[in-house]
Amino acid sequence: MNIQTIIIVGAGQAGASAVLELRAQQYTGQIILIGEESHLPYERPPLSKEAILNPDQCKLEILSADKLAELEVEFIRGQAVLSIDAAQHQLHLQDGRCLQYDKLLLATGGSPRRLPAFDALGKQVYTLRNLEDAHALISVLQPDRRIVLIGGGVIGLELASSARAKGCQVTLLEQGSRLMGRSTPEILADFLYTQHRHHGVDIRLNSQILDCQPQADQILIQLDQAETLLADAVIYGIGIQPNTALAVAAGLKVDAFGAVLVNADVQSSDPDIYAAGDIASQLRDDGVYRRVETWENANLQAAIFARHVMQVAHPKANPAWFWTDQLGVNFQFAGDMGAEEWYVRGEINPATPNPIFILFGIRDRQIVAAITVNAAKEMRHLKKMIQSQQRFATDIHLDLSRELRKLL
């Protein structure tokens, strides 16, 4: 097939990365990038941190107007795609335009899962998903304001860190029995709990919200056991819902959670339509479809798309990797967080001003996961250990006198 026009719907991390990779692979045809937001493509990880704490110094932009022009990309922003006609290879835009494509990449990301009872309360309730959300929180997070965060995942904990840095009184409500329950082992969840408590975050695990009501300029939250909280503002982050309405309407196959099913080449059930990033549930090497919400996964799937279109061997997936910065501490995660056993290299002490340690995740005596705490430079060595399924030995891997790079 002679590919003349590639359209990318979604101007976030995956969409922007696909543009760069297509041109890097010498694709010379037309690229149309469509973003529903009015902004140039930007990164989202800083939204809960630098974009709130240092908005004037925070650099979010992935592709500038000059770079888009240099790459000869037609960028349509502030426009929603209303429908896909897969049979005719056409997109219908909000402004009435009809665009023709040869190959189409859907990189539409996700939207916050909603709490309707809180949404109904109005302006004192916030979520965080885009740049406007981050800008709104700058004025919300002010000294001594009582902030209630709902959700003890990465976003909730990063916002707790930012709110404390701005002098807020912070209470965090988590329905589960531990923090970051879906993405971290219990040993690190306990460390995070103690560290945040040490820095003044009031964390309530196993928390059940029974009701919420406006009270003057505040919000009254009723918890179980007749406890109530008063909040100047509520921010919730309880996960995302993949933005797959377009894909579903176009007849693409989706999983039980609404994510687009894609093969190893990120092709959907329509071979000319691909999906990448938060909306894509990809067939993995173990024969299982998984959706991964990370910066790295968005980049990787974008590269797979571009290279498949150009008939170039695509990159092999590294162990799943993500990071978070909280209370001045950098955490990096790689591999399978469901590992059966965890071992500590170094010392876990949440009260230490600058804690440094590594966790090894072990299954059947092989290294299947690793977590670094303020030890980012070691992550590349740990990824290689995971990839090679290196056998774990406590007397070797936990010996601080041995450099990890020399154990490869």
- Describe the global form: globular
Spatial strand arrangement across the major sheet? 3-2-1-7-19
**Broad CATH class of the largest domain:** Alpha Beta
Number of strands: 26
**How far is it from the N-terminal to the C-terminal residue, by CA?**
44 Å
Query: Helices and strands: which structural class?
Result: alpha/beta
Number of helices: 11
The proportion of residues forming helix, as a percent range, comes to 10-25%
Name given to the CATH homologous superfamily of the largest domain = FAD/NAD(P)-binding domain
Low-confidence stretches: none
Structure description:
The structure is a single chain. The protein is an alpha/beta fold and 408 residues long. The protein has 3 domains: 5-51 and 60-111 and 240-310, FAD/NAD(P)-binding domain, CATH 3.50.50; 114-236, 3-Layer(bba) Sandwich (FAD/NAD(P)-binding domain), CATH 3.50.50; 328-406, Enolase-like, domain 1 (2-Layer Sandwich). The protein is 23% helix and 30% strand. It contains 11 helices and 26 strands. The strands form 7 sheets. Strands 3-2-1-7-19 form a 5-stranded parallel sheet. It has a 5-stranded parallel sheet with strand order 9-16-10-11-12. A hairpin with a 4-residue loop joins strand 5 and strand 6 (98-100). The longest helix has 15 residues, at 295-309. It is globular, with a radius of gyration of 22 Å. It starts with a strand and ends in an 11-residue tail after the last helix. The model has no long low-confidence stretch (mean pLDDT 96).
